[in-house]
Amino acid sequence: MRFKRIVLVMITSLALLLPGCWDARELTDLSITTALGIDKQDGQYTVTAQILNPGEVAGETVTTRTAVSIYTMTGDTLFEAIRKLTTVSPRRLYLAHLRMVVFGEEIAREGVSDVLDFLSRDHDMRTDFYFAVARENTAENLLKVMTPLEQIPADKMAGMLETTERSWASVGSTSIDELIASMSSTGKEANITGIVISGDPDVGTNLDNVERIDSITMLEAKGMGIFQNDRLIGWMNEEQSQTVNILNSKVTNTVTWVPCGEDGKITAEVFEINPEITGTVEGDQPKIKVKVTEEADIADVACVINLRDPKKINELEKGFEESLQKKWKKSVDEIRGLGTDVFGFGEVIRRANLDYWKKVEDDWGEIFANELEVELEVEFQIKKTGTTNESFLKEINEKIKQEDQ
Fold first, then answer.
1. How far apart are CA 240 and CA 287, in angstroms?
2. Which residues belong to the signal peptide in this entry (predicted)?
3. Same structural domain, 200 and 70
């Protein structure tokens, strides 16, 4: 009996030491924020919050209300603007489920280090959200666009970045850890995907935009912005963006083609991409060697060719290699002209020769643009040609010729 009392006293004492849910907050007191838009004008921050309407997302009843609401506020600092949102929002912002942070192009060109400092300090926030820049627009306008297929526009943008990065390579999904590391490094600069409003922005804010089979206004990922330190300095086109993502090992699947016959094309689906980047310093001459190995399947054939012939396959592989090498070399040279190392070649040189890197670190932008030697090699392997070895185009063309005669 005495033993039981001692155990009971010990359990009670230990229970008193437990902290419990001292900082618990009820969901009914919080506004679950899915996206933040950040603009800056005349020295003040404008914050736009895209907030879930829980009843609409749950889908328990059918109403005419939207799945999200938009609140906007201006302040002298970013945190002040967020707190001032409570004057228009009935609940305090909860950022743990954030999916997207969108910079207006103006603040992106001015510098985003202050914003990143706040986002990295907030203990409520996770690090699994993505960044984008509202290309030639404000973040506020971008977040107001209603999107089809996805009820929540932030989910549409995040899913678009993830899918396009994996399957087409023209844009990338950038996390806060990756962005801070790139901006604080002297051997690699940052890049962030641009999103444009395609169509009429005013129509995009109405529910009518998602009630049509062909939405008038859409959000479209278009190219990637090149940053120098924390400032946006320019935009890459689709080909340049693909090259950057491929060399940075951010692509698992994409599509490429080569000419075939007089005016036809053969398209291949690339399902394995392995870039290897090595660096050396000979004397005071830095050199980068890039070797990209790709494995692909033939996807479609718009010409007459015998895919059972090994010689034809070898010719196709050489054609793909030459085409990709030419395209990527052109993109690398164009980006080097900006003096901004978004490939991370500087990090490769630093790992290869630290003593040399310490001497040139402060001048790497100029060396990257004018002195660095870059050698590019491509190895392309065709694994499968599909279930049809020979295209039926030959028979169709012969039939057309006979009818014409």
1. 21
2. 1-24
3. yes
